[in-house]
Amino acid sequence: MLQTTEFALLRRIAAEQAGSRAPSLVAGVVRGDRLAWTGARGKVDGAVPTTDTQYRIGSITKTFVAVLVMRLRDEGKLDLNDALDKHMPGTSFGAVTIAQLLAHTGGLTSESPGQWWERAEGGDWPALETSLVEGALRHRSGARFHYTNVGYGVLGELVARLRGTTWLDALNTEILAPLGMTRTTPHPRAPAATGWAVHPYADVLLREPTPDAGAMAPAGQLWSTVSDLARWTRFVGGDTGDVLHPDTVAEMREPAHVEDDATWTSGYGLGLQTMRINGRRLTGHGGSMPGFLAMVLSDQNSGTGALVMANTTSGVAVGAVANDLIELVEQHEPALPAEWEPMAEADPELLALTGQWHWGPTPYVLRLLPGGWLSLAPVSTRGRQSRFRPEGRDTWTGLDGYYAGETLTLHRSASGAVTHLDLVTFVFTREPYGTPEAIPGGVDEQGWRTREG
């Protein structure tokens, strides 16, 4: 990056580390498919931390568990609307759905009963399940967002049962190994930062414990590095390799809940936090455990992402720092648009479909996209618009907007000529109210008039 950009980025993390009195702080910026910048302030064991120094990433662990669950969904081994009882019968909260657990809307208690789980050795699943026999549900399922670490302990057990192994073995086999994330582990491996609490009124430190969380580990057990977390930042942004289809990650990014309905600024999807800051849509997750803070954020529109980790219990605004790093990069070195180039190939039949169509009297434009995808949008730009992915010769599935998940069907006459489009019962014709036989309710036989009467 330009020296001016790198200095601005370094200045931001230096100010945060000094102002927040963090023993050490590391950060990275991702652009496209690479780690474009890294920075570090403070010391770990007397030396400047590197991109290979491990930090505990806390609840960022949840994003990995969510991906494991979505892989099971994509393989047909579960449905997000399945009640937990279908796969894990016998719990006291079996009516909660898998989607609700992913999105923290199931109403489960936030923390596991008993000792403060982040600082105590965790028990196994039977012990956790027994502790939840009474009082597991704090809210009616689906009624509201209520962040629950317990819910991800449950999802970790769900993954283990459906895979016939531990959630950690599934994680290593299905995610970490394919992505080359060899330094993401459940326990620290040198070089690794020590977790510290900083005294609020004096510049002295207190070592924090890092026990194994047992059945609660899926909520926040993992350790990682700048290099590994940069790969995960790219994953969140859509560079998924062969681990998950990018459309599934896009589904995970969509907010299942927002905290302020009118002009929402923060929400939660399926295992991912999402937010809007200064007009920018960001997705990722934060993490905190005693002695550590972390954040991953990605702007999927620009392809720029950022990560921040610090070995302190509190004080560092990792979310604000990650957002600021993205903003600084976009201000100093805005990404160039991808070069336009013609399609490698275009089906002549699909090409003939392009152009103007009408929903009643309202004109729309149908465009052909690479891969046989279609885009349908009103000419005025006001109204419902979506992209559609091909599913067969004459059918497409909506990917976004009002028509997400709905079917667009091309209708033909007996001779094979195209007559009209049917989009979830809405009829689109080449001329306003053309093809009268396809219009429900018919079309006035007198046709268009110059005046009433």
TrEMBL record:
Secretion signal, residue range per the UniProt entry = none
Gene3D superfamilies cross-referenced by the UniProt entry: DD-peptidase/beta-lactamase superfamily (3.40.710.10)
Q: What is this protein called?
A: CubicO group peptidase, beta-lactamase class C family
Q: Which InterPro entries match?
A: AmpC-like, Beta-lactam-related, Beta-lactam/transpept-like, DUF7586
Span of domain Beta-lactamase-related:
13-329
One Pfam entry for this protein is DUF7586
Annotated DUF7586 domain residues: 347-430
